[in-house]
Prior knowledge:
Helix content: 40-55%
Order of helices and strands: HEHEHHH
Oligomer: single chain
Strand order of the largest sheet: 1-2
Strand content: under 5%
Largest sheet: 2 strands, antiparallel
Amino acid sequence: MTSWTDWESFDISPEFYRIALNMHQIEEYSPPPNPTKLTDSRANNYIDRHGYECWELDALRPEIIENLIRDTVIEHCDLSLFEEMKEREQEARETLKAVASDWPKIERKYGK
Length: 112
């Protein structure tokens, strides 16, 4: 498993966003509530802020979760760069297919 410090070797700094389950989504989608687990060490603080009911992300319909994820990714994605990379990937795929179809000839010419 990759540790957080391993990201530095890729010269990137990932950003994390909480996209669900937020109170406005609870109000909008009305998932069924659960009782707060009083044995949880965070229960008192949670109850002080939100009351005795809690909600779980998996109570949302899968298509709602999918839309939340997709919308957030698209919001942070350079779509023109993404399309350019898809084109380059397709070109590379076509090159590999051409090489694969000519492999016996290439192998004879350049050896194993």
